[in-house]
Amino acid sequence: MKKLILFSVALLSLGFASCKKDNSNSSGTSHVTVKLTDAPGAYDAVILNIKQVVILSSGGEKTVDVNTTPIDILRFRNGKDTVLAGVDVPAGRLQEVRLVLNNTGNRVVINGISYDMDTPSGQSSGVKLKVQDDLTAGVAYTLLLDFDAAKSIVTTGSGKYNLKPVIRAIPQAVSGALTGIVTPAAAYPKVYAIMGTDTIGTVADATGKFYFPGLAAGIYQVNFTPVSPYAVKTIDNVTVVNGSVKDLGTITITQ
Question: Which helix (H) or strand (E) holds 150?
Answer without folding.
Answer: helix 149-152
